[in-house]
Specification:
Chain lengths: 213, 103
């Protein structure tokens, strides 16, 4: 599997990756090894990776259980991007979680022209079929916007993603692989924080921030 | 969720009020307001528990480099920001308040 991996993509390793990369596997925290053996996905991080590698994060049960590492691109068996999660039905009873209720409502209501989907806990829950979202979870969303948005367009777009049950954090992902918060751009701040693979930078022209790959 | 408070000596109250950052994973929202003369109050609301000593070290360092800082009330809402994001947001807030004072 090649192509460019984008932050928030979910990746599944090959079944025998732990055997083939035994030393790497042994170096992971116990909870992370367990997650991999249960065939849970890894989440692509926005960080520079060595050639042929992908920066990923593992997610455990608690906030403290997060682990970042690199995996060889050749060990990836399957990939799911946030927009592909539109096709995953919500499990019975999970609508009681405000973030999942908001996801369910928004995905039926919104008809923006850009690809978009969930990231964070909602994405992980949809991809794994396990209860990850809590009653206090926000809904993290990523929207792939290829060209600059005016502040006025941002205001219209942000209004689309408002939901009475849950705070929605909409990140605008750009072709460079960097991203920023729609709300910050919409607010009219002179400069917004652009998260790049080399770290955060402040910019008044987020679409002009150099691709750093 | 944890709330951590610090106090530092300061000069006259800062002029101006700024808000930088947004509520969202990995970000830090910073609200900076004029403080009571002679005193800077810092309140950190963070989603990451057990990091009080790191926050203290960060502010001790910051205010050590700013011996003539104006008195402010700084409120931080942290959503798991990395040290790089924290530094950038604080610098952004300080810079904006300085610009406002200069106007």
């Amino acid at each position: 599997m090649s192509d460019k991996f984008l932050a928030h993509d979910l990746l599944w390793l090959k079944v025998d990756t732990p055997q083939r990369h035994a030393e790497w596997f042994a170096g992971l925290p116990l909870w992370a090894r367990e997650r991999i053996l249960r065939r849970h996905p890894l989440v692509v991080r926005r960080e520079l990776a060595p050639p042929g590698g992908v920066a990923v994060g593992l997610r455990g049960y608690s906030r403290a259980e997060r682990f970042g590492c690199f995996i060889p691109a050749g060990e990836i068996a399957r990939r799911m991007s946030p927009p592909e999660l539109h096709g995953v039905p919500l499990r019975e009873g999970r609508q009681s979680m405000p973030a999942l209720k908001a996801w369910e409502d928004l995905r039926h209501r919104i008809s923006v022209l850009f690809p978009w989907g969930p990231s964070g806990s909602a994405a992980y829950e949809l991809a794994t079929g396990t209860d990850v979202v809590s009653a206090t979870s926000d809904l993290d969303l990523v929207l792939y916007v290829p060209h600059p948005l005016t502040r006025r367009e941002a205001t219209r777009l942000l209004a689309e993603f408002e939901h009475p049950a849950c705070y929605c954090d909409v990140q605008i992902a750009m072709p460079s692989g960097s991203a920023f918060a729609l709300r910050e751009w919409e607010r009219g701040d002179a400069r917004v924080m652009v998260k790049t693979p080399r770290g955060p930078v402040l910019s008044n022209k987020p679409w002009s921030v150099e691709s750093t790959v | 969720m944890e709330t951590i408070k610090f106090e530092y000596p300061a000069k006259q109250p800062a002029s101006g009020r700024v808000l930088v950052g947004v509520v969202g994973s990995g970000d830090l929202e910073v609200l900076l307001e004029p403080g009571e003369s002679g005193k800077t109050r810092v309140t950190v609301n963070t989603s990451v528990d057990g990091a009080a000593s790191q926050w203290r070290a960060l502010f001790d360092r910051l205010f050590a480099t700013l011996p003539n800082a104006a008195a402010m009330n700084l409120e931080l809402n942290d959503f798991g920001a990395t040290p790089g994001v924290v530094r950038m947001r604080l610098e952004q807030a300080m810079e904006l308040v300085k610009q406002q004072a200069g106007k």
